[in-house]
Amino acid sequence: MISLDPRSPAAAAPAGAHVFDASLEGFEQEVLLKSREVPVLVDFWASWCGPCKALGPILEKLAAEYRGAFLLAKVDVDKEQQLAAYFQIRSVPTVMLLKGGQIVDGFPGALPEAQLRQFLSRHGIEPAAAEAGAGPEATPADPEAEVIRLRQAVAAKPEDEALKLDLVLALLKVGAAAEAEALLEALPANLATDERAVKARARLGFAALLKEAPPAAVLEQALTADPNDLRARHLLGARKLVEGDAEGALEQFLEMLRRDRGFEDGLPKKALIDAFRVVEDEDLVGTYRRRMASLLF
Q1: CB-based burial label for 100 (10 Å; 0-12, 13-18, 19+)
Q2: In this structure, are residues 12 and 76 in contact, taking their beta carbons and an 8 Å threshold?
Q3: Are 196 and 169 in contact, with CB atoms under 8 Å apart?
Q4: For 26-56, what is each residue's pLDDT tens digit?
Q5: Alpha helix locations (H) across the chain?
Q6: What tens digit of pLDDT does each residue of 238-275 get?
Q7: Domain residue spans in the chain?
Q8: End-to-end alpha-carbon separation of the chain, Å?
Q9: Given this chain, do its domains 2-122 and 216-296 carry the same CATH topology?
């Protein structure tokens, strides 16, 4: 983080589909009003600022990767001194998040990519789904194809730990839990709290439950005989989750909570929370979060 120092105007920041240069003249329309439709991250930067040069490309990379889940507005504080004064910017880089026309959060200084992802996730900002035929960066519909793509990407950029984390999640989707776990454990400590790492560990936890678990048909028979067999219900929920039936899994965990929230030191609530980290359907997660809350409170 560097204190503001007036110097010659900086060159314009690069702009992309979801990145633009913000000015005082268009700020209300392009940032404040637009933030009522989609979150806007405002990056206050300067050409003479070293940390800005490190942070800016990462923010722009994320803006492209998230495909419009948020917009990135770049404010050159040398050119837009009135804007910088209005927002009381005393050092650069400074980043602010606007939603609904209001500042909801922000931070000074340059954060690493993993912490930036955490910051976005904390505010419910996740990568938007790629459109069919969106180009070579679109996520393949075939999970096996995604694993192949990411293996190639990691081979090309072995120093990119974030790519390895993406590969971990892709491996888990095709059932390669052992390889995913080994790769996850080899990642640096600074990625331990990354949202994707948390999701991967939750999915690995469910996969580990099934190493010696009975097949789904046997678990369902056990529940028909005794609906209060919460151990069988937990295993059935884990099996459904690993096999891709997210709603079926959440329903089993919710039923555990309904029958005995204190089972095995609060396992029903823990299972639901871990499942929320794994399930990618935000609407489905929101529905079951509300249902969980109605049972707890």
Answers
A1: exposed
A2: yes
A3: yes
A4: 899 899 999 998 999 999 999 999 999 989 8
A5: 27, 50-65, 81-86, 113-122, 143-156, 161-173, 177-185, 195-209, 216-225, 230-242, 246-259, 267-278, 282-296
A6: 988 887 788 999 999 999 999 999 999 999 999 999 99
A7: 2-122, 143-207, 216-296
A8: 43
A9: no
- Out of 1.10.1740.10, 1.25.40.10, 3.30.70.3270, 3.40.109.40, the CATH code matching 216-296 is 1.25.40.10
Asked if 76 contacts 24 with a C-beta cutoff of 8 angstroms, the reply is: no
Give dist(CA 71, CA 270) in Å, integer.
34
Question: Catalytic residue positions?
Answer: 49, 52
- Angle, vertex CA 185, rays to CA 265 and CA 236, nearest 5: 40
* Cα torsion 170, 172, 174, 179: sign: positive
Nearest of 46, 110, 30, 126 to residue 78 by alpha carbon: 46
In degrees rounded to 5, what are phi and psi of residue 44? -85, 120
Show the tokens assigned to 276. 């929320």
CB-based contact 230:197 (threshold 8 Å) = no
CATH architecture of 2-122: 3-Layer(aba) Sandwich (3.40)
Q: Tell me the pLDDT of the chain (297 aa) as tens digits.
A: 444 443 333 333 333 578 899 999 989 989 999 999 899 999 999 999 999 998 988 898 888 888 888 999 999 999 999 999 999 999 999 999 999 889 999 999 999 888 898 899 888 888 875 444 444 444 444 677 888 888 888 888 888 888 888 888 888 877 788 888 888 888 888 777 777 888 888 888 888 888 788 888 899 999 999 999 999 999 999 988 887 788 999 999 999 999 999 999 999 999 999 999 888 888 888 999 999 999 988
User: How are beta strands 91-92 and 2-3 bridged, if at all?
Assistant: antiparallel
> Which tokens sit at 284?
């489905």
d(CA 194, CA 273): 16
